[in-house]
Specification:
The structure holds 2 protein chains of 2 kinds. Chain A is of the alpha/beta class. Chain A has 12 helices and 13 strands. In chain A, 33% of the residues lie in helices and 24% in strands. In chain A, helix 7 crosses helix 10. The radius of gyration of chain A is 24 Å and the shape is elongated. The chains are: A alpha/beta, B mainly alpha. At the A-B interface, helix 2, helix 3 and helix 5 of A face helix 1, helix 5 and helix 6 of B.
């Protein structure tokens, strides 16, 4: 498992990571979620020994990263920042990494096959698209067949097909019992990829629980109901303590109601008992994004007293945390 | 997860422990790191270009300068400056030959040495390098050894080629042979000087981390500092000048200690080595301490 204990990092007076502690367990995909500037990349750099923490310690399998023998065979990492020489071929980039770990040259071809870059292996990495570079980064991470994977924003720059590929790869690797920490500011991507979520804001831990729990706990669930007999249904629901708001115009003879404080099955039962016709009865699951906005409101940079978290966050981050509502399909380079 | 899978399921990922090579528990040896750094050096075009430039400039300028001086030998005889130059060449023809092309050629070695580490920072490869070798010192040590070995071999070839080409041209005016006292040491020593100078540039690159800053600094050290210190008055000016890394190190290219030299050729080379060792130590210290 990956363990962060009381990690703190200060860059020139600005606290990037603030006494952060969490544990990443094997056999599942753990999402590492937070708005831009929350400290996700910094935390990963601290775990990987690239930066030195001001306090606390991060361990992988009980050891600090620098203590690992042949670290690439234990930990694979994809960093958000580029780490490839544009003038070097993909194959040579992977080759020098493989050689440093005593891995055979054949392993380079294996990972190139795995990420689908075999045909362009001899091309200089500088000619690669963002998506191809991302695949090269994944290949480098998988080079040592590691039990631990840390991926920082891996779907950035990938087309929908690539996003799906990463998603399946992560689930497949987690299914093999590996420990996987994957960061993202794309909430909906995390909702379908991660089994467990660690949410941070301003370098502090906000939530650490199962993805479903994070959604369920932090947002009230509502049910959308369409009925031609809005008045009678409203009366029935409110008699049982539910709250009803009229949320749509009466079109085609039916009104749209939003019900909170009552689960969909009970609404259906009430409607049946009162012989009210329903055209639609659909539970509205709070999206992870809404849950996320709720969790991190107040923790966004400069966001506490601003007109709203999105508008406020926009001043520091090119892609405000809340703006990525289109999720996976929108990940197609749109956030860079 | 509703869409049909357009790509084949991920894999093949070989099962854990299925990799050949060194077992995961024992650290890959230093030999693996040397191999890794060799792959880094040879797989980038800038290395190849810098080395080609070094060969062409050093041998080319030795031939060119020697040919011009030889051809104009009699014309220069009337002027005082020409006579002084001739006296110096006659006194130490090997030293002249080793300075003629190396003076410019050494800059390509300096640039390459600095680039070797600064491009790791500018391209971000340093992160990949340090993830692979998190203890950091072995990475820089392997890089320095591979670079030094490469430059030593190439520089010796270039220095001896320059000497033979230059002495053949100079022969009609001044005869010099490898078997003359101090000459073989001067030629071989110039290759050593270039190698250690390259390591000095590598150390400066590791300290400064930015390409432009590192190259400006090393060129300042090699070209500008000797001129500035030469302007200093008195004997302490002369002492400072004598102990500058480039001034001291290049003494080894002279066949014998000249009248005004404070240091012998080997002492001078030793001073360069001390400078380089100190800067490399500082580079390693900072590499280990600083965030990457």
């Amino acid at each position: 498992m990956i363990e962060a204990r009381d990690l703190t990092k200060v860059y020139s007076g600005k606290v990037a990571v603030d006494h952060l502690s969490f544990t990443v367990r094997p056999g599942r995909v753990t999402g590492f979620l937070g708005p831009n500037g929350a400290g996700k990349s910094t935390t990963m750099r601290l775990i990987l020994g690239l930066d030195r923490p001001d306090s606390g310690v991060a361990t992988i399998n009980g050891k600090r990263y620098a203590e690992l023998a042949n670290p690439l065979r234990t930990v694979g990492a994809l960093l958000e920042a580029k780490s490839v020489h544009g003038g070097r071929s993909a194959a040579n980039h992977l080759l020098f990494l493989a050689q440093s770990q005593g891995l055979p040259k054949s392993r380079v071809d294996e990972v190139l096959d795995m990420v689908g870059l075999r045909d362009v292996a001899a091309k200089r990495a500088g000619t690669f698209s963002l998506g191809m570079n991302q695949r090269l980064g994944i290949a480098a991470a998988m080079l040592g067949d590691p039990q631990y994977l840390l991926l920082d924003e891996p779907v950035n720059g990938l087309d929908p097909e690539g996003v799906l590929w990463i998603r399946n790869l992560l689930k497949y690797l987690a299914g093999q019992g590996r420990t996987i920490l994957v960061s993202s500011h794309l909430m909906n991507e995390m909702a379908v990829t991660a089994d467990h979520l660690i949410v941070i804001g301003r370098g502090k831990l906000i939530a650490d629980s199962a993805t479903g729990d994070v959604i369920a706990r932090s947002s009230e669930q509502s049910v959308r109901v369409r009925t031609p007999d809005a008045a009678r249904l409203t009366a029935l629901i409110e008699a049982e303590g539910g709250r009803v708001t009229l949320s749509g115009d009466s079109t085609a003879g039916a009104a749209t109601l939003t019900v909170t404080g009552m689960p969909a099955p009970r609404i259906g039962e009430l409607a049946a008992s009162g012989s009210v016709v329903l055209h639609e009865l659909s539970p509205q699951l709070a999206s992870l994004e809404e849950a996320f906005m709720e969790l991190t409101s107040g923790s966004l940079e400069f966001g506490e007293h601003g007109p709203g978290p999105m508008a406020a966050a926009g001043s520091t981050a090119p892609a405000p945390a809340g703006a990525d509502s289109a999720a996976a399909a929108d990940a197609d380079g749109g956030n860079r | 997860m509703t869409a049909p899978q357009p790509v084949s399921p991920p894999g093949p990922v070989s099962p854990a422990g299925g990799l050949a090579g060194a077992p995961a528990g024992t650290r890959a040896g230093f030999g693996h790191l040397l191999l890794s750094e060799w792959t880094k050096i040879r797989s980038v075009r800038s290395t190849v270009w810098a080395l080609i430039l070094f060969v062409v400039i050093t041998i080319g300028f030795t031939v060119l300068v020697t040919a011009l001086i030889t051809a104009n030998w009699d014309k220069g005889r009337g002027g005082g400056g020409g006579r002084e130059a001739h006296v110096a060449i006659i006194a130490d023809p090997a030293g002249f030959l080793m300075g003629a092309g190396v003076g410019l050629g050494q800059l390509t070695i300096c640039v390459l040495g600095a680039l070797l580490i600064t491009t790791e920072y500018s391209t971000g490869v340093i992160r990949a390098s340090l993830l692979a070798v998190p203890r950091r010192t072995p990475m820089l040590a392997a890089k320095a050894i591979v670079f030094a070995a490469l430059i030593l071999v190439l520089a010796e070839i270039v220095c001896f080629s320059s000497f033979f080409a230059g002495s053949a041209i100079l022969h009609s005016r001044v005869a010099v042979s490898l078997s003359d006292p101090g000459v073989a040491r001067a030629v071989f020593g110039t290759g050593l000087y270039l190698t250690v100078l390259g390591l000095l540039a590598l150390a400066v690159g590791a300290l400064i981390r930015h390409t432009a800053g590192a190259i400006s600094t090393i060129i300042g050290v090699v070209l500008v500092l000797p001129i500035l210190s030469g302007l200093l008055p008195g004997s302490w000016g002369a002492h400072i000048n004598a102990y500058l890394p480039q001034q001291a190190g290049s003494l080894i290219s002279h066949a014998h200690q000249q009248a005004g030299d404070l240091l012998s050729p080997w002492q001078g080379f030793g001073v360069l080595c001390i400078w380089t060792a100190l800067l490399l130590a500082a580079g390693i210290y900072l590499l280990k301490r600083r965030d990457a």
